[in-house]
Amino acid sequence: MKVLVVASYNKGRFSPFIVEQARAFEKQDCNVRFFGLQGKGVKGYIKNLPLLKKEIKAFQPDVVHAHYGLSGLMANLQRRIPVVTTYHGSDINDNKALRFSKVAMRLSAWNIFVSQKTLAIAKPKSKYSLIPCGIDLSDLQLTSKEEARRRMDLDLDKKFVLFAGAFDNVVKNAFLAKESVDLLQDDQVELLELKGYSRDEVTLLMCAADAFLMTSFTEGSPQVIKEALACGCPIVSVDVGDVKERVVGIEGCYVSTTREPQELTALLKKAFAFQDKTCGREKIIADGLDNVQIVEKLMSLYNRVLKS
Length: 308
Hints:
Elements: E1 2-8, H1 16-26, E2 31-37, H2 41-46, H3 49-59, E3 63-67, H4 69-75, E4 83-87, H5 90-93, H6 95-107, E5 110-113, H7 116-122, E6 128-130, H8 145-152, E7 159-163, H9 174-182, E8 189-192, H10 199-208, E9 211-214, H11 223-230, E10 235-237, H12 243-247, E11 253-255, H13 261-274, H14 280-286, H15 291-307
Parallel strand pairs: 1-2, 1-3, 3-4, 4-5, 5-6, 7-8, 7-9, 9-10, 10-11
Helix pairs in contact: 1-15, 4-6, 8-10, 9-13, 11-14
């Protein structure tokens, strides 16, 4: 099967989880090619249409898989090849983006939502599935805390809280995270910004941290939560996206009932007290969120779309 992946390329690269999903397809003997959209807004994306049509004519894919609503809308401006569109959260949670996503939903042969919350907002009437994006499982995720700290040159005696993003990303709400850590009143606790690291370094930081902290205003199905689970890192999060569903039943992982910093501080103390790897990796496998498992679901979906 030939699959053309269509997604934004405005940052000069595709999102890592999109690339990892495509690589998992290639392991199933799929021929995958990428088409990167460059430009801002609908007008910027439409300028890519002649190049997209040229790529489709040359590659002759069976399916076009677009990531995010605006990419899905753009991909559907050609009607030769069926389009499957995945909506990741920012294209649903924002009202302006949702309008374009709604059009993409009507035009797409099939629609994929990554969390129940985004599905509830989008309210599709037909042609949809709930399939979170998967992650790759690796031996590096099994690295001990001590070894990970040595490799990342982190103090073995301090406590580290790994923040779920860059401090300057407004959506991630770093202010609440900093406030929660400050309330610990412990100068041996450091909040680490998740920015500027390679994929392997991110994995090692998750293995090294005493807790992973998410305080975002909105999320879809955050990949970093799944990655932290695969590393066995204790998690403290506000109730956002599908985090509660992902961590339910895992000792050492906690979801707050409020957005009060005092509650998050108390949960961080509980995470510190856990002092072990969680069973998050087992939960990822049980939930079918290894990329190998996700690709099997998507292949079945593609075949269903082609038959119809």
